[in-house]
Design a protein that fits this description.
This protein has six helices and no strands. With about 120 residues, it is mainly α.
Length: about 120
């Protein structure tokens, strides 16, 4: 649409405003998750293991709030935040959710299935 407006000779494109929205979205999407991950590794901001899943929610809400407050592009902010978390997050360094090899995935499902199977002592199958 922007290229069509340029080709038509429109003067009210506000390219500076558009560029700042796009750039700000990318900056927020990279800086906020990177800073949150770095702070999480310090002893002052380290989370208990039971609360670690809330870090992703907190990062997402912070990116959304800063994007809304600064009028940055929310789509680019969320996309860049996801890439940043996937690149710098702890799970990337430790493997895929505890699976070191593709052969571990069926073994894990087998263990989970056996763990959910009711015991024979109760008379239930």
């Amino acid at each position: 649409m922007v290229f069509l407006a340029i080709a038509a000779g429109s003067d009210d494109l506000h390219l500076g405003e558009l560029g700042s929205e796009l750039g700000l979205g990318i900056v927020i999407g990279v800086a906020v998750p990177w800073l949150a991950i770095e702070l999480e590794q310090t002893r002052w901001f380290a989370a208990s293991t039971q609360y670690e899943p809330l870090n992703a929610l907190a990062i997402g809400l912070l990116v959304l709030a800063l994007g809304k407050a600064t009028h940055g592009n929310l789509f680019l902010a969320a996309f860049a935040a996801g890439i940043t978390v996937a690149t710098f997050g702890e799970r990337r360094r430790t493997g895929r959710a505890g699976f070191d090899d593709e052969r571990d995935i069926p073994a894990w499902f087998g263990r989970a299935r056996r763990a959910r199977k009711p015991s024979q002592e109760n008379g239930r199958d």
